[in-house]
Specification:
By secondary structure, this protein is an alpha/beta fold. The protein is built from ten helices and 13 strands. Among the domains are: 84 residues, OB fold (Dihydrolipoamide Acetyltransferase, E2P), CATH 2.40.50.140; 162 residues, Rossmann fold. A six-stranded mixed sheet has the order 10-9-8-11-13-12, with helices on both faces.
Length: 354
């Protein structure tokens, strides 16, 4: 195996040379288990930890390794390694950390494409697809919509769902598959390219791990059935794991995400809802919220039936979430800054007392 098989490229090599990391091994994080990492290198797989200095200087979770990261590490004969540095990331898929004020959770890094997977038989939801799409757009990751479990519904209903997706979400590939019959597998295999990394995003029970196992040709990830009592997926994958396909391409499976919040620090929402953004240029007021103002181009289009109401309402909801996350993130940074100054003053006073 070559590092290129894992997605290594010339830009990463140039950075390695510029930073004088010649004495370190280079590897890619393929699994994460509570700050213990499995890193794939030319010498094989190593269980790794970060250095104490990396832990001490880290400001937040983004400073820790994540699945998909390229790292410089020192390897030892006992299949153990120490990670010294994270190489630059070209993409980061993230969301607000559940239950943590203003913090984010990194789902995966250095992703080229994301399969946005939804099952068509039970909780199909275009609003949720738009959420995943926004995450991709803010992360510079190219999305591909995958509709799974097509063997469980009638062909007419499937066509209706596909059409509804294409009406709301423009210019994004839509692939329908069945993990049971493997219908649509040739189409999904055709978009997987050597050296490119693909991430699977979707709720529990939509068939992500089964799809991964079938594409890999062997049972890599555990799978489970849908609970008959709740009609919800039983949560099986509890960590992110990167797998190299036999015929090229790299796939990352993720835990089913019960909450899909927005941590959009760029223009992900604007890209996802570009029609609303274009209509807003006709608004009378520059600070228009598109909710009640007279002369709002968005509301006018909505009243004329030129804008999908469900998409409009989904946009407003995610915009509020984004504003809230931005606010909490700012407040958290202020608190961290005050705490940092307090520690600095404490150390200064302690030093001067000697």
């Amino acid at each position: 195996m070559k590092l290129e098989d894992l997605g290594y490229n010339d830009k990463l090599e140039d950075f390695r040379l510029e930073q004088r990391l010649d004495s370190f091994e280079i590897g890619r994080v393929i699994a994460e288990h509570k700050e213990r990492y499995i890193v794939n290198t030319l010498k094989g797989e190593f269980e790794a930890e970060i250095t104490g200095n990396m832990r001490f200087t880290s400001k937040n979770r983004e400073d820790f390794p994540a699945v998909g990261d390229w790292v410089a590490l020192t390897t030892y004969n006992s299949n153990f390694a120490i990670i010294h540095k994270i190489l630059p990331r070209f993409s980061i898929i993230k969301r607000p950390a559940v239950g943590q004020f203003g913090e984010i959770q990194i789902i995966a890094t250095n992703i080229d494409y994301a399969f946005l997977i939804q099952a068509v038989d039970r909780d199909f939801n275009i609003n949720r697809l738009e959420r995943y799409l926004t995450i991709c757009n803010s992360s510079k990751v190219r999305p591909i919509i995958v509709l799974s479990k097509t063997d469980l519904i009638e062909e007419l209903r499937l066509n209706e769902i596909i059409e509804s997706v294409k009406v709301r979400i423009k210019e994004i590939p839509v692939i329908s598959i069945s993990n049971e019959t493997q219908r649509g597998y040739e189409e999904i295999k055709s978009v997987i390219m050597d050296g490119k990394t693909y991430c699977m995003l979707g709720s529990s029970g939509v068939g992500k791990s089964t799809l991964l196992n079938n594409l890999a040709g062997n049972p890599i990830m555990k799978t489970n059935t849908i609970s008959k009592s709740t009609n919800k997926g039983r949560h099986v994958t509890s960590h992110r794991e990167l797998v190299i396909m036999d015929k090229g391409g790299i796939l990352i499976d993720n835990p089913g995400m019960r909450e899909v919040g927005i941590a959009d620090s760029t223009n992900g929402l604007e890209i996802t809802f570009d029609k609303i953004i274009r209509l807003s240029q006709n608004c009378k007021f520059t600070d228009c919220t598109h909710t009640y103002e007279i002369g709002c181009g968005v509301i006018e289009a909505l009243e004329k039936g030129e804008l999908d109401r469900a998409s409009y309402e989904n946009y407003l909801k995610m915009e509020k979430e984004k504003e809230y996350f931005d606010l909490t993130s700012t407040e958290r940074r202020k608190k961290d800054k005050v705490f940092g100054k307090m520690i600095k003053n404490y150390k200064k006073k302690k030093f001067n007392s000697f």
